Amino acid sequence: MTIFRDKHLKGYLLFIIVYSALMIGVVICFCQSQVSVTKSMYLEHDTAVVSSLLEQGVSEEIIATAISNTTTDKDGIELLSKIGISANTLSSLLPFLSQFQSHTFRILLTGTMVLIFLLCAGTLFFLWVRNRLYLQAQNIVGCYINGDYFNHLSQNSEGEIYRLFSSVEQLATMLQSKTEAECKTKEFLKNTISDISHQLKTPLAALTMYQEIIESEPDNAETVKEFSKKIDTALKRIEQLIQSMLKITRLDTGNISFEKKLCRVSEVIKTALNELTTRAQNEDKQIVIEGNLEQSIWCDMDWTSEAVGNLVKNALDHTMAGGIIRISWENTPNMLRLCISDNGSGIAPEDIHHIFKRFYRSKHSLDTQGIGLGLPLAKSIVEGQDGLVSVQSTLHEGTTFTLSFLTKP
């Protein structure tokens, strides 16, 4: 039974057992004492009777016969009745019996008071220890209510009360995690809004400037055409920025549910390159695909294609004309590794650990396209599907991103 695992209850039960044994011992001692007192009283009474008879001149033979006699008759009862000794005689009128009664009462009263005191003392001590535990738990729960999770409930023993404490601790841990998650969410939203605001300043300022130039030279068709294109580029940049930030925000806050299924790698690559092959041709860059077209991965087709597309865009951004972007994949017993490599400018050693941060732009790539959200978005998409992203790069030689996916659920 779980009740016997509680340290305090076990102590109290042990006290009750010892107390019961003590009571039995007291009763035995009391009975032995009463037998001894009764024997002493009986001998004292017989001695007094014998002494009185001897004084009256009664022979020793008659006294001995009378003392050892165990039978009663009517004459004896009537004689005792005449001198006032019967079953109805008050105990106080019988000296020896009165003394015995007084002695017995004193012993019983003293023993009972001692036993009651011990029982009350043991019970009060148990209740005091238990109440102290409850007060400690109440104070700690009060701290939990006020958001202070530094102290913890006692869980150094077994029993129902400690199981309850354990459940309260689990609840407190959940509340703490929820509070921390809410704080992180608020901080995340604050940083996201700050990032969007900061990143929108430049294109919005450019749009304002372009608009002023167009308004100042309305008759110059070439100027209007040139800055209209710049306005279009800036608007696309703003749209791309907002869409990327919204996607990252939804991924980080867990508002996106990936619909994973078994997809062919070739289909994922095809969807990812839908709009990038034309750009590669226009920029005189080559995209090479190598791998078993029948191999499959467990993923969300649309989101995974976007992640792969972002990595290919990054490769195109950092590869000069005539460069090669290579997409290959290979199977392992449980994983499929998809590699996207290029022979472009590579990543500097001081930048390799920061490339997945939002809006991070290396000083070596300030003149390239992009807004610094493609890599963080790709990483969030892959890791959101229980995948992994790793990168290897050598400056001025090229970069390889490796995506690892499960091949089965």
TrEMBL record:
Signal peptide: none annotated. It comes from the Bacteria. GO terms for cellular component: plasma membrane. The lineage of its organism: Bacteria, Bacillati, Bacillota, Clostridia, Lachnospirales. Its main location: membrane. Keywords: Kinase, Phosphoprotein, Transferase, Two-component regulatory system. It is an enzyme of class 2 (transferase). This is histidine kinase. Its EC number is 2.7.13.3. The gene is resE_8. GO terms for biological process: cellular response to phosphate starvation. It is found in: Membrane. PROSITE patterns: HIS_KIN. It catalyses: ATP + protein L-histidine = ADP + protein N-phospho-L-histidine. InterPro entries: BphY/WalK/GraS-like (IPR050351), HATPase_C_sf (IPR036890), HATPase_dom (IPR003594), His_kinase_dom (IPR005467), HisK_dim/P_dom (IPR003661), HisK_dim/P_sf (IPR036097), Sig_transdc_His_kin-like_C (IPR004358). One of its GO terms (molecular function) is phosphoprotein phosphatase activity.
